Amino acid sequence: MENLVLTRIDDRLIHGQVMTAWIKNKKATQVVIADDQVAEDEYMIEVLEMAIPEDIAIGIFSKEDTVTFLSQGLDEPTILLVKGPEVLNYLVDHGIEIDEVDVGGMGAGNDRSVLYKNISTSEKENEEFRKLLDKNVNVFIQVMPQNKPMNIAECLK
């Protein structure tokens, strides 16, 4: 998709130096968050709006509204943020062209085990990653722009 400069999975969404580095690296002027729960949470919306640099536009949508928004095309360099791979499969299945996905942050949890360094996933999430790979989406792990990307298929073996 034209002007989609980064699609990133990070369960913290917008946070500190990581987002600042990616925004600069990708020369993004807009961030879109696709998350059903966050889109319904006025407090979290306010927190995320305050966490993003002032000169960067932000849109926070349910996955359905994200499809509608992205289907109209993007006029400016945009970073798409989601918390997990299932949302990306939904978007791709609904006609949104996503060529590559950066897995940046998925923390530990009860049903998760370490996939690679600080990336933890559940078996369901691993299956969602496999579905993305089957759709010819390049999925890789790259926490910061200066890190070398690691193909997630290697981790899923």
TrEMBL record:
This is PTS sugar transporter subunit IIB. It is found in: Cytoplasm. Keywords: Cytoplasm, Kinase, Phosphotransferase system, Sugar transport, Transferase, Transport. InterPro entries: PTS_IIB_sorbose-sp, PTS_IIB_sorbose-sp_sf. One of its GO terms (cellular component) is cytoplasm. GO terms for molecular function: kinase activity; protein-N(PI)-phosphohistidine-sugar phosphotransferase activity. Residues 1-157 form the PTS EIIB type-4 domain. It comes from Candidatus Anaerostipes excrementavium. It comes from the Bacteria. It holds the Pfam family PTSIIB_sorb. GO terms for biological process: phosphoenolpyruvate-dependent sugar phosphotransferase system. SUPFAM superfamilies: PTS IIb component.
